[in-house]
Amino acid sequence: MAIITYLLPALAFASTAIAQCSNAATMTITQSADASALASCTTYSGSVAIPTGLATPQDSNGHQQLIVDGVQAITGNLTVTNAIMLSSLTFGDLKTIGGFELGGLTVLSELSFPQLTQVSSMNFTALPALQQMSFGGSGISQADSILITNTGLSSLQGINNLQSVSTFNVNNNAALQNISLQVVSIKNSLDIEANDGYVSGLSTTFPMLETAQNMTFRNCSSISLPSLANVTEDLGFYGNTITSFAAPNLTTVGGLIFVDNTDLTNISIPGLVSVNGSYQIANNTMLKQINGFQKLSVIKGALDFNGNFTEVDLPALTQVQGAFNVQSSGQLDCTAFNADKNSKQVIKGNYVCSGSLSTPGGAGTKVSASSTSKPTGKSAAGHNDVNVQAVMGGASLIAGLLQLIL
Ligand SMILES: *[C@@H]1O[C@H](CO)[C@@H](O)[C@H](O)[C@H]1NC(C)=O
Ligand SMILES: *[C@@H]1O[C@H](CO)[C@@H](O)[C@H](O)[C@H]1NC(C)=O
Ligand SMILES: *[C@@H]1O[C@H](CO)[C@@H](O)[C@H](O)[C@H]1NC(C)=O
Ligand SMILES: *[C@@H]1O[C@H](CO)[C@@H](O)[C@H](O)[C@H]1NC(C)=O
Ligand SMILES: *[C@@H]1O[C@H](CO)[C@@H](O)[C@H](O)[C@H]1NC(C)=O
Ligand SMILES: *[C@@H]1O[C@H](CO)[C@@H](O)[C@H](O)[C@H]1NC(C)=O
Ligand SMILES: *[C@@H]1O[C@H](CO)[C@@H](O)[C@H](O)[C@H]1NC(C)=O
Ligand SMILES: *[C@@H]1O[C@H](CO)[C@@H](O)[C@H](O)[C@H]1NC(C)=O
Ligand SMILES: *[C@@H]1O[C@H](CO)[C@@H](O)[C@H](O)[C@H]1NC(C)=O
Ligand SMILES: *[C@@H]1O[C@H](CO)[C@@H](O)[C@H](O)[C@H]1NC(C)=O
Ligand SMILES: *[C@@H]1O[C@H](CO)[C@@H](O)[C@H](O)[C@H]1NC(C)=O
What we know:
It is found in: Secreted, Cell wall. This protein is mostly beta strands. The protein has five helices and 31 strands. Helix content is 13%, strand content 35%. The protein has a 20-stranded parallel sheet that branches. α3 links the parallel β30 and β31 (351-354). It starts with a helix and ends with a helix. One 2-acetamido-2-deoxy-beta-D-glucopyranose binds at residues 47, 76-77, 98-99.
């Protein structure tokens, strides 16, 4: 008891002295004096929030600026949300932050963190006036997760030199012109979507990227992955305006998906050996030839292609574990696949290969009637049961047949 009474004043003193630069509760900056207090700390151990209701001087437009120099590290989060009149935010000496969250800053047009190189996560949401970021020298090199959505950014200069990242999600940034990242690996997922306001589209390039867990590209005008070697889960392309896609170094992928890429005419993945999930190609209206897979041998899931192609060439195929569905409105030669099916070694699941269809569908759909009266391709009679049935319009028969095949 006596000891505690004796210590109390000392503890109280220590805690007030440390409180300026360390706090379990979030430090809130609402006026210039708060910013000055933070500026006196080299390292601030805790989180800092700049919320709505900032009471700093306003210019003739009612806009506010905030400059915090001195502080070099914030161990917790820096969260700036809904400070709707904040037009300029500067942390002149800040090198590292935990989470960096900017949200709902309607007029923020200047973001200056000239020393910043490291954040654990970045969440930039609803920053319509922000056209560029200014970070340290070569920019942020380390981050676990990046989310940039609904901003006015025209480029991602400032994070282009990221070396590795776990989660990278950039969506709905209408002015974005290009994404060029130096990352070598995407440990978790990459999602790029709906950044489609710029007149020539969003071009993306990942010159160093070798491995990724999961990647999804939507609405991009070009996609360059020259070093990509392995993707453990899915690699998906949806609604892009790319005219061709090449991944010269890709050898293995979990799932591979090309859907709704309406300008795509050429896919070239010459070194791809195995797809450890399903391989889908659907609704790429300009894609006439699927012949850029000279080494593809093993598909552990389904192969599911539908479209308007006249050639599907998979010369190295040795194994398709799931369903096999190739349906085209174009004239198609199914001879090689019929042989693969008949040998019972290569194609093990439900089998459909059919051309000249009025409405080519995905795996599990009924095979539509032929759009022409001629049998398709040069398929040898008697080796093409499903195809012949389709031409005769035996849709329900086919459905029954499909169930029996597996
Ligand atoms: C920082 O923000 C993240 C995400 O919002 C949260 O999970 C984490 O607990 C925050 N950290 C601190 C120290 O407040
Ligand atoms: C990002 O920030 C926005 C608003 O500031 C918030 O609603 C959202 O939950 C955050 N997302 C993540 C993944 O932290
Ligand atoms: C891509 O963005 C950079 C800025 O990061 C810019 O300098 C460059 O001109 C842009 N390239 C294209 C093709 O738009
Ligand atoms: C492609 O892979 C080869 C062999 O692993 C390697 O030498 C080459 O540098 C890679 N190319 C690119 C562009 O990464
Ligand atoms: C990609 O996978 C192949 C085959 O599993 C392996 O030999 C190669 O080392 C992997 N490459 C990278 C960059 O992980
Ligand atoms: C393929 O997928 C299975 C599970 O679906 C997983 O156990 C295996 O490691 C994967 N192989 C490769 C090479 O990614
Ligand atoms: C992985 O990628 C696929 C296809 O691109 C996508 O549908 C799925 O949502 C992604 N999963 C995660 C966890 O990002
Ligand atoms: C973006 O891609 C999606 C498919 O993921 C598609 O539905 C949508 O129409 C595309 N948007 C534009 C503007 O092309
Ligand atoms: C498809 O793209 C590959 C790789 O870029 C190229 O070598 C090939 O000539 C192209 N094929 C056609 C028909 O354009
Ligand atoms: C392809 O387009 C058809 C017709 O619009 C649609 O029913 C089908 O769901 C699409 N397939 C995929 C995989 O999106
Ligand atoms: C398929 O391509 C031909 C031209 O090669 C075109 O006449 C036809 O409309 C296309 N069909 C579909 C469904 O896109």
